[in-house]
Amino acid sequence: MTQIALFGTSADPPTAGHQAILHWLSQRFDRVVVWASDNPFKTHQTALEHRMKMLSLLIEEINPPNPNIAVYPELSSRRTLETLERAKQYWSDVEYTLVIGSDLVQQIPQWYQIKTLLKQVKLLIVPRPGYGVEATDLEKVKQLGGQVKIADIKGLPVSSSHYRQTGNIEVLPPSVQAYIDQEQLYESTVKD
Ligand SMILES: Nc1ncnc2c1ncn2[C@@H]1O[C@H](COP(=O)(O)OP(=O)(O)OP(=O)(O)O)[C@@H](O)[C@H]1O
Ligand SMILES: O=C(O)c1ccc[n+]([C@@H]2O[C@H](COP(=O)([O-])O)[C@@H](O)[C@H]2O)c1
Question: Which residue lies with its CA nearest to atom 20 of ligand 2?
């Protein structure tokens, strides 16, 4: 059966960490469906349109290029269940895997209608430096119906908030750095 990976991100801004995950996924899934979204638990510093554009640029930069990975702006929703419902209108009869970093394992039980979501997707957790997966958190997700796997990669030690706090452009792919400069985004961030 066709395997589709679902990867949603605040992308505020997207980092080399997101890029490495997407590259890895594109080599293992038939299709990687990506979207930038607002997060009901966060505020965002940049308009969604810019975040979506940065995500597309980051994907275009992945080498070697792989046509199985793309941003789908129309799937963007604060609720991942809504994204899934829309995706199912495009691709039915496929197996969906929702991809999250290990920092979200503790939070995911609070997502909108999580049981309904976990019935329809497998969950793939990408280990993130500084965020070990606690057995009790994993158990909670399983009790909610989650079929969980831990990905065989280690996320990079970078984050969007590190960039926003420090202005350290090294955590951003060159295409994203250039876009931020061109559009004068994150102006309040002290740039290195
Ligand atoms: N370096 C990383 N390693 C593993 N997972 C990551 C990494 N960066 C992001 N992710 C995962 O990718 C998804 C989108 O992350 P998000 O856009 O919130 O980035 P972030 O760096 O966590 O942002 P912020 O620092 O603003 O919270 C989440 O599931 C997150 O756990
Ligand atoms: O469905 C929800 O209730 C829900 C709650 C929090 C986050 N999400 C989604 O999880 C994805 C990762 O969020 P973030 O902010 O860590 O990038 C992103 O697509 C969010 O919209 C989804």
Answer: 39
Q: Whose CA is nearest to atom 21 of ligand 1?
A: 159
User: Is this complex scored with an ipTM above 0.90?
Assistant: yes
Is the beta carbon of 100 within 6 A of some atom in ligand 1? yes
Q: Which residues have C-beta within 8 Å of that of residue 14, sequence separation ≥ 6?
A: 36, 51, 54, 55, 58, 160, 172, 173, 176
Q: Which domains does the chain have, with CATH numbers?
A: 2-183 (3.40.50.620)
- Cα 33 to ligand 1 centre (Å): 16
Q: Is 13 in the pocket of ligand 1 (CB under 6 A)?
A: no
Q: Per-residue pLDDT tens for 5-29?
A: 999 999 999 999 999 999 999 999 9
159 lines ligand 2 (CB under 6 A): no
- Select from 51, 154, 29, 44 the least CA-distant residue to 97: 29
- pLDDT single digits (tens) 102-115: 999 999 999 999 99
